[in-house]
Design brief:
By secondary structure, the chain is of the alpha/beta class. It is about 25% helix and about 25% strand. The protein has helices spanning about 40-50, 105-120, 145-160, 175-180, 180-185, 225-235, 265-275, 290-305; strands at about 1-5, 10, 30-35, 55-60, 65-75, 75-85, 95-100, 125-130, 165-175, 215-220, 250-260, 280. The strands form two sheets. The chain has a six-stranded mixed β-sheet. Strands 9-8-7-11-10-12 form a six-stranded parallel β-sheet, with helices on both faces. Helix 2 runs parallel beside helix 8 (about 290-305) and helix 6 runs parallel beside helix 8. The two termini are about 35 Å apart.
């Protein structure tokens, strides 16, 4: 998918630079996105996909629809021409996965952005943890100018256009976040006016009741698996008592809390418990934060994606 922003899209008959052009007046207007010769997307079209003039490519508008565009080479630029009215929205997600990550090494933070976006994570929150080095919060990997392009890279890989919401709470203590953010603990939410807004996608997900959320914190120890916790949550809320092991997690949200490389402290684990998180384990091995994120998201996605499967994997 060649992902473009709405700011890059202009009327098809407008040959002025994108920074000076105006966007199309309506969705029926022919539209064009012109990419400079040094743009990675233009190089991908010309040198990796080897698309000739007049060929079509899959195009998506950030937080918008997906469709086909005709490639036109306007040296030195590459133009993508399409009709906005023909762009179809990406399929709705039957569930949402949010991640709360204890501030990791800067290189791990940088590596995670594209991965999390490609795996369909709806919200990414980076929080200061007791065992995180405070200096990690100074990394450029937490700046929108760095992570937004990486998120877009992940979206393009996944053929998606929905930009995850990002919360940079790296300067805040985990305990404070759990106490103040209603999304995680059901308590009093701090006013968003007090925080600097971050790039995020349009809210196209179905609204969920707090009771529909399954909140899981990863930790070492004799804890259940991520899948087991999700199945247990489903069985407690089953609609059909005759199938007690049926997974009924359609239109649900899972919040996964993954610690930094040194893990969570006992005090932080207690704070998670007070906020309604259940502890889960990925095994006895101490994993890097990025590896733990990928494993936990994959397990949660699999459980949430198959509402007709029972706990032991059989079709109900």
């Amino acid at each position: 998918l060649i992902l473009v922003t709405s700011e890059e899209v202009t009327t098809a008959d407008d040959s002025t630079p994108p920074s000076e052009a105006t966007p199309p007046d309506n969705d029926a207007s022919p539209a064009v996105a012109r990419l400079g010769a040094d743009d990675a997307r233009a190089r991908h079209i010309a040198h990796h996909l080897r698309k000739p003039d007049g060929a079509t490519v899959k195009v998506g508008v950030l937080n918008g629809g997906v469709g086909e565009a005709v490639v036109t080479y306007e040296a030195p630029r590459v133009a993508l021409r399409f009709a906005r009215a023909l762009l179809a929205p990406p399929p709705p997600r039957p569930y949402a996965i949010d991640v709360l990550i204890g501030l990791p090494y800067p290189r791990v933070t940088r590596a995670l952005w594209a991965v999390l976006a490609s795996m369909g994570v709806a919200r990414i929150s980076i929080v200061g943890a007791a065992l995180s080095d405070p200096d990690y919060a100074k990394t450029s990997a937490l700046e929108p100018s760095t992570y937004v392009p990486l998120l877009c890279e992940g979206l393009a890989q996944a053929m998606d256009t929905r930009l995850p919401r990002v919360d940079d709470w790296s300067a805040r203590r985990l305990v404070d976040v759990l106490e103040m953010e209603a999304d995680f603990c059901g308590g009093t939410k701090k006013s968003r006016d007090e925080e600097e807004p971050s790039p995020k996608a349009e809210d196209d997900e179905p609204r969920r009741d707090d009771d529909d959320d399954v909140k899981i914190v990863l930790d070492l120890g004799a804890h259940p698996s991520v899948r087991a916790l999700l199945f247990d949550a489903a069985s407690r809320r089953r609609a059909d008592l005759s199938t007690p092991r049926t997974l009924g997690l359609a239109h649900r949200r899972a919040v996964l809390a993954i610690g930094p490389e040194r893990g969570w402290t006992d005090a932080e684990a207690a704070a998670f418990a007070r906020a309604g998180f259940a502890a889960a384990s990925l095994g006895d091995a101490v994993l890097r934060t990025d590896v733990a994120c990928i494993a936990a998201i994959a397990l949660a996605s699999d459980a949430l994606r198959h509402p007709s499967c029972s706990c032991d994997g059989r079709i109900a």
